[in-house]
Amino acid sequence: MGVLFSGSQAEFAVIAEDWLRSVRDIAARGVFVGGPPVASFEQRFAAYLGSRAAVGVGNGTDALFLALKALDVGPGDEVITAANTFIATVEAIHHTGARPVLVDCDPDHFLIDEEQTMAAASPRTKAVIPVHLYGQMVDLQRLLPWAESRGIAVVEDSAQAAGAFHRGRAAGSQGALGCFSFYPDKNLGALGDGGAIAVNTEALLPVLRKLRNHGGEVRYEHELPGFNSRLDPIQASALALKMNYLDEWSKHRRAVARMYEAELARVGDLMLPAHRGDESHAFHLYVVRTDASARDSLRRQLQKKGILTAVQYPVPVHLTPAFSHLGYEAGSFPNAERLAAEIVSLPMHIAMDEAAVAQVAGEMLAFLGPVRV
Ligand SMILES: Cc1ncc(COP(=O)(O)O)c(C=O)c1O
């Protein structure tokens, strides 16, 4: 038996019946954009996060872009984020006309380096986007007051971190705005694209509601040049159903991480992900490191045995052709570059159990050999 990389089909099986019923209800009402399912999901999601409000949008990339637009980020501004994020974070900055300023990550937690973030700030810095990468929250305790004292907005890229809490605060609830992706494989995943912006600064709510809907909350009342980026009710109803399971599924992911830790402790040439051991990691991904020279052959061997893995992400943003114009080069961010060559994401989802973890670990042991003492 193989081991799937994604749990989205297993999640679908859990909500299928109720969701199909809500799709029929939506069709019977004939409101396929907006309507009560979206508003009620937004309220519920905001309450879960402890945010003032949530604004559903078309996807996580738009959530970031519209968040920056609402903060009036544009040409002449700079926005700091991590070099080892998914490219969407940097695309969102780029499309506002602002300049993305990248910094390295720390080598253990893979999270944005706090000192480098502070050092990269200039009078032009309008926002910082800490990325809660792989589901693990960046500690914002120092960064938030530092940013506030300089008038820099913090936008949390929480695309991978729904269900994570640090010191009692949800991912996405501490910065001015928190951006979520509901891409199907995410911890809170729709059955297609979707996203949301958690609004923690109430003054930004009206502009966000306008930006996502052609510049107005009321049809044909266009108060500013907006966009079309809305969460649709068919997705919102799937998300509302999955919210019933989010905490349980996050708990399961943390349990799978502990199983991996136990099973992989005997495997050589392998570094397991560092974390705080609490709810601040929602384990969207379980990312291990091995020697760069062995990484791709390990993945091929696992695939031969039916175990699917991934690399998130094989090229750090500054080395992609898309962002070569930023002027960084190989060596600019050594931690991010090294990680890109060494990381492997192992299967991590709600359908993983002890047998599946043992199977993955067994194949890794067979390929990499035991820990040398
Ligand atoms: C860290 C991060 N930021 C942003 C995004 C963009 O989200 P989406 O794919 O919904 O546009 C993703 C997800 O793909 C992500 O992982």
Automatic annotation (TrEMBL):
Coiled coil: none annotated. CDD domains: AHBA_syn. One of its GO terms (molecular function) is transaminase activity. InterPro entries: DegT/StrS_aminotransferase, PyrdxlP-dep_Trfase, PyrdxlP-dep_Trfase_major, PyrdxlP-dep_Trfase_small. The keyword Transferase applies. Keywords: Aminotransferase, Pyridoxal phosphate, Transferase. It comes from the Bacteria. Belongs to the DegT/DnrJ/EryC1 family. It comes from Cohnella cellulosilytica. This is DegT/DnrJ/EryC1/StrS family aminotransferase.
